[in-house]
Automatic annotation (TrEMBL):
<keyword id="KW-0328">Glycosyltransferase</keyword>
<dbReference type="Pfam" id="PF00591">
    <property type="entry name" value="Glycos_transf_3"/>
</dbReference>
<comment type="similarity">
    <text>Belongs to the thymidine/pyrimidine-nucleoside phosphorylase family.</text>
</comment>
<dbReference type="GO" id="GO:0006213">
    <property type="term" value="P:pyrimidine nucleoside metabolic process"/>
</dbReference>
<dbReference type="GO" id="GO:0006206">
    <property type="term" value="P:pyrimidine nucleobase metabolic process"/>
</dbReference>
<dbReference type="InterPro" id="IPR000053">
    <property type="entry name" value="Thymidine/pyrmidine_PPase"/>
</dbReference>
<comment type="function">
    <text>Catalyzes phosphorolysis of the pyrimidine nucleosides uridine, thymidine and 2'-deoxyuridine with the formation of the corresponding pyrimidine base and ribose-1-phosphate.</text>
</comment>
<comment type="subunit">
    <text>Homodimer.</text>
</comment>
<keyword id="KW-0808">Transferase</keyword>
<dbReference type="GO" id="GO:0009032">
    <property type="term" value="F:thymidine phosphorylase activity"/>
</dbReference>
<dbReference type="InterPro" id="IPR013102">
    <property type="entry name" value="PYNP_C"/>
</dbReference>
<dbReference type="InterPro" id="IPR036566">
    <property type="entry name" value="PYNP-like_C_sf"/>
</dbReference>
<dbReference type="InterPro" id="IPR036320">
    <property type="entry name" value="Glycosyl_Trfase_fam3_N_dom_sf"/>
</dbReference>
<dbReference type="InterPro" id="IPR035902">
    <property type="entry name" value="Nuc_phospho_transferase"/>
</dbReference>
<dbReference type="GO" id="GO:0047847">
    <property type="term" value="F:deoxyuridine phosphorylase activity"/>
</dbReference>
<dbReference type="GO" id="GO:0004645">
    <property type="term" value="F:1,4-alpha-oligoglucan phosphorylase activity"/>
</dbReference>
<dbReference type="Pfam" id="PF02885">
    <property type="entry name" value="Glycos_trans_3N"/>
</dbReference>
Amino acid sequence: MRMYDIIEKKRDGHELIIDEIKFFIDGYCSGNIPDYQASALLMAIFIRGLNKRETADLTNIMADSGDKVDLSSISGVKVDKHSTGGVGDKTTLVVAPVAAACGVPVAKMSGKGLGHTGGTIDKLESIPGFRTSLGIDEFLANVREIGLSIASQTGNLAPADKKLYALRDVTATVNNISLIASSIMSKKIASGADSIVLDVKTGSGAFMKTFEDSVALAKTMIDIGESLGRRTSALITDMDLPLGNAVGNSMEVIEAIDTLKGKGPSDLRKLSVELAARMLQGAGKGSYDRCVEMAEKSIIDGSALKKLTELIERQNGNTNVIDDYSIFGESKHVYEYKANCDGYIASIRTDSLGIASMILGAGRENKDSIIDYSAGIMLEKKTYDKVSKGDVVARFYTNNKKSIDNAAQILDSSITISNDNLQMRPLILAYIDSSGVNKYIP
């Protein structure tokens, strides 16, 4: 078998067999296939595409390229949840404790943030003492004993995807549905869950900007999961405005805790309950309506908050943060960003808001950037809200005073104020499973 022949075959629009895909992945990971040949095949795939079977084979081969988590020692149906990334998206901190409180074990490996989207691991590491680097035995023991563990991904989880993504990133071959879907799902398959619930974002703050592209990505990932024996479903959710009001690590943890106390932003609670209900449904806990009731009850009776407290304690975090937010520490500088005219906020470019938060210190411009856990943005007004000139739209928090002007300039060019009161777009746009697409009616 020759790499030249595989490139030529896909270039001409033909289907690759599993042995050819495996030859490519194994050869590239071992260093036997050079970058220039791997790049040529990626471009051929980008242009010609992969069918369902090819995409599933690529995913499974990448999942098999490194460590795989064996969750068989944990009883029950193990359910994972994955978001394609957004601004202010702290749902894992709410959803995972809710699911665990309802009797569904959650063994979740998450990543750090890069660029304008935040990472669950960074948020958890803002809790003093919290450990996200766990050995596999401790990770599994936590799930067996309290029904929940969230840890950073092992460096050898789907290493083929990591190497392939780095090449895609510099060869203009990222934005292909099959390649995106196989990248995400290879890590989910390697993580060992029986059922997977996907939160596919759409809009200005999302990777997929249109509803149609988000649906296409969701359907492809569902096809992969189902073909590999995982019950898989997805929500299409709006990221034309940030989720909740807080954008920044410790600020988002506080907002998640408030939500578990029944006091958080309505949009964060709504989406968290919906995701948790779909996780419970995927674990066979009953009808959709019954699962919504269970999720809501876990917040009302405090059992979900108790699960978060247990998670923090098990992973050596300071549980006093649940009731004393001052433990997180405060930024030295607070800046009030104000409206420059009267009207209604017609739009806020959510990706720009994420970039502004990153500049203040809450995110990474590159892998070596140091996170300021107290930095970020708290929105006092959001899209569709009425404002008067001089109203505080957002508060910036940072320990780097020089970053404030830059962040303010980004918001200046990202916020549109109109005389018209626009109709609010629904938060949850559709639910998708193997039976098809079901649009939500607001």
